Structures are given as C-alpha cells and as structure tokens.
C-alpha cells in the first residue's frame, strides 16, 4: 500500500512528538511513523520488577559495541520515545554551553545559535511541558523569566539536606521538573512510565493532542527502513516503512527524522544511494560521528541509623562546579538528587545479594546523579553493519573532570554525615543521553544540518532530535530538544509550508 502526506515525521519522542504538536495547527496533512506502540496504562508501569528485572518496556533490539559484542541498549521504542521513562528534569542549557568552552581534556565547540536565539522557545517549551521551578537560586542560571509553575517542594529530608548544603557554602536550587496536576510525587518516576499520565512527556504533551486533529495521522509499529531520493539526490521522495511486517512506501513533500541520535544516524546511513554513497546527507562524512552521551555516575550516601523517609527526593540541583571546579578553572558538571533506588534496581548490579539486604540498604540511602560533559570525537560513532545492525563505538572522554566531580560529591556527602558513599556507572553502555550524531552548524563541510536542522545536502529533509547537538553540555538534554523542535516548526511554517500553499 502506498500513501502520500505533506509532512512525514519519523519518531514520536522529544523531537518528533513536539514537532507533531507544533505543526498540527497548520493545514498540512501530517503522518507520524513510530516503530513502537503506546505504552499501556497498567500496574506494571510502577513495578520495579517489570521495569528493572524483566525489562518489560525496553527496546528488544541488541546493538554491537566497539568490539562487536552485542548489548541491550538502555532505550525505549514506543509512542513518546524515551521521554515516557525520563525523570522529567527539564533544564535549559546554560548560556556558556552555546559558546566554545575549554575543558580539562579538550574543547567543547560553539553552537551555531546562542542562548538568546533559543530563549523564547525555551519559554514555550516550559509551558508545553508544564515545567516547575524557581529562579534566582542557581548561580549558572541564564537570563530568563519566571517558570510557568512554582518549584516542586522538597520533601522533609531533602529540605534538611538543602539547608546543610547551604551551610557548606553551596548553592542548591530546585530542579526544573515537568509534572502535571495529577502528579502524586511517587517513588517510581525516573525510568518508569507514569501510570497516571501525570508526567510531562512527548506522548501526553505532544502526540495525543496532535492526533486529536483531523489532519494528523499516527501509524504505530511502523519502522522506517530507508529514505528514497529523487534521481538528482536533492530531495527525499518517499520513505520505505515496515508496518506490522508489511512494507509500504509513503511519499511526502517534507520529511522530519526524529528517531533519536543513534537511530536517526542509522536511518541516514541505511539510506545510502548512488547520489549519497556514504549515507544520505553525508557529504561532510559526519553522519553518525561525534556521538556523545554524558559521563554519569550514580552515587548514594548511606547511614545505617538514618532511615530515608522521603518518597519523592528528585528536587535538588547543585551547579556550583558547572562552570569551574574547586581547584581547577575547568568545568566539572552537575550534581542532582535522584529518584529513590529500589532493592530490585540495586540487585541488577550484584544479583547474588539477597533482595532483603538491598531493601534494608536502600531504605537508608539518599541517591544522587553526577553528570559531566563528554566531548565530540570523530571516532565515537554509530555505524551500520552489512546486516543492518547498529554498531556503537564509544570511548568516554573528559574523564578527569568527571572523576574530580565524583570525588567532590563524595566529600560533600561525607560532610553531610553519610557513613558510606556508594558509586555506580553504566559507563559506555549508558545510551540514555545519546546525542550529537547529525550535528547542526553553518559550514556544510563541518556539519550535516543548518541551524534550523535542515540537511545541507537535501532540501526537504530535517533531523530534529538529540542528533543535532554540537556539544553535550552537562544538563539533561530534553528541554533543548523540545525548544529547538518548536523553533524548527516555526521555520517550516514560515518557509516550506508557505511555499507549499503558494503552489497548491
Ligand atoms: C530513564 C531515562 C531517564 C531520562 N531522564 C531525563 C531527564 O530527566 N531529563 C531529560 O532532559 N532527559 C532525560 N532522558 C533523556 C531523554 O529522554 C532523551 O534525551 C530524549 O527523549 C531524546 O529525544 P529524541 O527525540 O532524540 O529521541 P526519543 O525520545 O528516544 O525518540 C525517538 C523515537 O523514534 C522512534 N524510532 C526510532 N527509530 C525509528 C524508525 N526507524 N522508525 C520509526 N520510529 C523510530 C523510537 O521508537 C522513539 O519513539 C532520560 C532518558 C531515559 C532513558
Ligand atoms: S505521579 Fe508524578 S512522580 Fe509519580 S510517575 Fe507520575 S509524574 Fe512521576
């Protein structure tokens, strides 16, 4: 079966779901292709066993690592993409993140746009995703207006920790969180789907309102296999898509690829043809390269005689070392409190320790996430094997900065009185903050997309998801993907859609 639409959006996560929402108000006939299905609202949404033991919602696919060994990536294929499972910490990048920054182990390049260009779209993104937060407490906060909603209040234990962090001379602030009215501040948020649909994510904030409109169609279980160009190679004519096992060809005037940083690069590479021999839109040779994913370490402060009674503890950010560390002029990254660890989650690390022992342990722990910027390197890349499988070559870098930040956080937690500080990292296999594989820029030789995420080589092709990041910064990427999607949608409305209307 063949079909024609004005716009085809491939992927329904932060990028694709937001694009769909922003373009839905136009007259364009829009098709969203999503390889997964809706995540059902069910008890398992909040079951640590289902989420962490049987991996009920994880992508079934395996990727290959740099040595060719298969691994299960930490990613999700469903309506809303990874946003369905995110912690909904929705930070703006800092003003400095848009500029070239020198790090301990190299340079983070400048973006082709600055903070002021994205600021109005950040504001709209925060409204669309119901972000709660406070201004004036974070020393790295860029110029901004008030948040759409006041901060999520700290639970009692966290409020006490915030006071003691201030006593240490630090500047803790409220995490910007995307939650909706129905939120009950439970202990199964980050890495879980919200059973109440109270989390701000691309399914409930983007896709559902979009498909309520008559001009927007969603095909689920629809995996895009290849993009097909016209004979000149300058425009994409159609996408070949597998829908429940049946291969269809969908033609369109405009294509938006939003499959996530790894899959968007893989789709372009799989779409190589005689005009694009090394992959679609890849005259720069950069498609798939410069993969980044953040350096992330989970830390837990433990005290045997202090039970942690807080249910929702993910409310505190510490950015004192974001722009420069203690004892170094270079940036180290961010510290944020993290959702409660469950015994079952801890048991996935060392499975032979009895669950009861873990439950006792985590009941006395306070969890933190320590995150640093990794730098774009050509050799860190996504490739596609001859059988179509994804291969991810990634050697983490800027490790000295991250280790310093982990050391500093350990010191802070000890000064807060925790007896033991545990650390854990998924290392190179943590694909949750994947970005950078189809980067935007002004020079077609040094970037794949222009500053509105349009491919330099293919005039009707946009890539709008975490792929466009020239650098990874050290805050969570989601809000920046959403803001840029809103900006690109505005651009499409005033350029491509105007042209289409004129020709109609
Ligand atoms: C557990 C977890 C916690 C996180 N917490 C946070 C947080 O607190 N704050 C934050 O900012 N970020 C967080 N992130 C990261 C955030 O979710 C991602 O950065 C964001 O979702 C990326 O958006 P995207 O549009 O690039 O891709 P995704 O949201 O992953 O969307 C890509 C979509 O494309 C679909 N797709 C892929 N290939 C194809 C194909 N060939 N055909 C059709 N469809 C396809 C996928 O199924 C998916 O739905 C978290 C991620 C995880 C996993
Ligand atoms: S109820 Fe609130 S805290 Fe719980 S999963 Fe939903 S959004 Fe997250």
Specify the helix fraction band: 10-25%
The total beta strand count reads 21
Number of helices: 11
Q: Main β-sheet: number of strands, strand sense, barrel status?
A: 7 strands, mixed
Overall pLDDT metric:
96
Q: Looking at the structure, what is the overall shape?
A: globular
Proportion in β-strands:
15-25%
Low-confidence stretches: none
Distance between the termini: 25 Å
What compounds are bound to the protein? flavin-adenine dinucleotide, iron/sulfur cluster
Model description:
It contains eleven helices and 21 strands. With 504 residues, it is of the alpha+beta class. Strands 1, 2, 10, 11, 12, 13 and 21 form a seven-stranded mixed sheet that branches. A six-stranded antiparallel sheet has the order 8-15-16-17-14-20, with helices on one face. A hairpin with a 5-residue loop joins β18 and β19 (390-393). α3 crosses α10 and α10 runs parallel beside α11. The mean pLDDT is 96. Bound molecules: flavin-adenine dinucleotide (FAD) and iron/sulfur cluster.
For the structure shown, list the relevant keywords:
7-stranded mixed sheet, 21 strands, 6-stranded antiparallel sheet, 11 helices, 23% helix, single chain, binds flavin-adenine dinucleotide, 504 residues, binds iron/sulfur cluster, alpha+beta
């Amino acid at each position: 079966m063949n079909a024609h639409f004005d716009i085809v959006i491939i992927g329904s996560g932060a990028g694709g779901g937001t694009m769909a929402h922003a373009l839905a108000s136009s007259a364009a006939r829009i098709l969203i292709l999503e390889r997964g299905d809706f995540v059902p609202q069910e008890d398992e949404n909040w079951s640590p066993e289902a989420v962490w033991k049987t991996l009920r919602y994880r992508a079934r696919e395996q990727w290959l690592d740099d040595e060719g060994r298969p691994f299960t990536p930490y990613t999700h294929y469903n309506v809303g993409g990874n946003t369905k499972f995110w912690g909904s910490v929705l930070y703006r990048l800092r003003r400095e993140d848009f500029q070239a920054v020198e790090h301990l182990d190299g340079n983070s390049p400048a973006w082709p746009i600055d903070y002021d260009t994205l600021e109005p779209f950040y504001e709209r993104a925060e409204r669309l995703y119901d972000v709660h937060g406070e201004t004036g407490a974070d020393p790295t906060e860029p110029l901004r207006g008030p948040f759409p909603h006041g901060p999520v209040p700290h639970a009692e234990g966290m409020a006490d920790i915030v006071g003691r962090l201030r006593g240490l001379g630090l500047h803790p602030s409220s995490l910007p969180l995307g939650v909706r009215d129905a939120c009950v501040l439970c202990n199964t948020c980050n890495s879980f789907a919200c059973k109440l649909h109270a989390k701000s994510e691309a399914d409930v904030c983007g896709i559902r309102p979009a498909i309520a409109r008559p001009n927007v169609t969603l095909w689920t279980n629809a995996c895009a296999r290849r993009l097909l160009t016209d004979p000149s190679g300058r425009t994409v004519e159609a996408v070949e898509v597998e829908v429940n096992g049946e291969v269809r060809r969908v033609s369109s005037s405009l294509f938006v690829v939003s499959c996530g940083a790894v899959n968007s690069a893989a789709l372009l590479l799989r779409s190589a043809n005689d005009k694009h021999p090394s992959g679609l839109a890849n005259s720069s040779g950069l498609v798939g390269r410069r993969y980044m994913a953040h350096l992330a370490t989970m830390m837990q402060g433990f005290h045997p005689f202090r039970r942690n009674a807080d249910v929702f503890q993910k409310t505190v950010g510490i950015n004192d070392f974001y722009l420069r560390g203690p004892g170094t002029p270079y940036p180290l990254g961010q510290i944020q409190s993290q959702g409660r660890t469950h015994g079952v989650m801890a048991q996935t690390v060392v499975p032979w320790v009895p669950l009861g022992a873990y439950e006792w342990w985590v009941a006395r722990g306070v969890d933190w996430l320590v995150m640093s910027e990794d730098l774009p390197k050509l050799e860190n890349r996504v490739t596609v094997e001859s059988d179509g499988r994804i291969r991810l070559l990634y050697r983490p870098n800027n490790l000295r900065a991250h280790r310093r930040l982990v050391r500093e956080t350990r010191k802070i937690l000890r000064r807060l009185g925790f007896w033991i500080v545990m650390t854990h990292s998924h290392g190179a296999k943590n694909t949750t903050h994947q970005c950078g594989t189809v980067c935007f820029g002004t020079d077609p030789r040094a970037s794949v997309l222009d500053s509105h995420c349009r491919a330099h080589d293919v005039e009707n092709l946009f890539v709008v998801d975490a792929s466009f990041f020239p650098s990874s910064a050290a805050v969570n990427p989601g809000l920046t993907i959403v803001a840029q999607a809103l900006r690109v949608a505005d651009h499409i409305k005033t350029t491509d859609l105007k042209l289409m209307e004129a020709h109609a």
